[in-house]
Task: structure prediction
Amino acid sequence: MADALLPVQVCYALPERQLCIDLQVALGSTIADAVALAMPDIDLTRHRVGIFARLKTPETTLRAHDRIEIYRPLVADPKDARRRRARKET
Result:
């Protein structure tokens, strides 16, 4: 069973579309391994990652049927944006 493969999916949402790539990775593979295979241009030092909407580290070991999500950096701080909207409403 040393060469067992796990089915996983790597997803990345852009403003205009969503990319989801299905992969088969080796048992013991990490999030970083799967992202490197699916989207080698993604820099994991700039993007956070998760599995099914739960933040994880790139070193997290994968399990069968994991959906790896790559999160884009925020354009604005959500707290500041809420404060600006609240000031406009008053």
